[in-house]
Amino acid sequence: MFWTHIYDLVMKIGVLFLSIIILHNIPFLEDKGIVVTCVSLIISVVSYILFLRTLGSYLYCRLSLKMPINFKQAEALNEALAPNPFPFTNLLWLPLKEVKDLHVEHKYETAIALLYQWKLDKQRKREEQINQSKNNSPIIKGLERLSVVIVLASFATSFLKLPPATFVIQYYCNLFDTNEYSPFFISCIMTIVCLLPIILIKRKLENKTT
Fold first, then answer.
1. Model-level pTM greater than 0.70?
2. How far apart are CA 168 and CA 56, in angstroms?
3. Is the pLDDT of residue 88 over 50?
4. Theoretical Cys-Cys bridge with 16: which of 44, 74, 77, 131, CB 3.0 to 4.6 Å?
């Protein structure tokens, strides 16, 4: 999930585009699209983790849930409203819509209680997934290892300009009539295209074993 609520989406897209615009107007960077893209992504991720995710949670609570809270309280709800973008097993969010119609005095306490219960449920599901993965068939384990290899190979071949990434790069340049491309973007395209069939096969095998 790329975003949770609308304010979270605005924060992520806003800081990314603002970073690109500012960096693109720096004289020694204006012709270096790859550098601008990479630095913009880094600035966006760091800004989001350090401040913007809390601001998004604050706006969501204030405007959508009508919950009078401060920034410190909003930060305590980040795990529900704006999960850390790095743990890929933790990209679900908790809208907390149950508190919207409650009395103002009880909204924050109820939200914290719901968050605590949600964390317990996630931990239980995670333990179940770990136990299930231990019992996975050799085919499923092989697909998991293959997925890791595909991700590493996609990034390595894209940045080193090796096949099969060179074919994707050539197609991309011809399609957009340009000689510039982002190795990171090419890596993401290759990863998504190659991983989709593996994910589908893995899910079908897991459904058969459950």
1. no
2. 36
3. no
4. 44
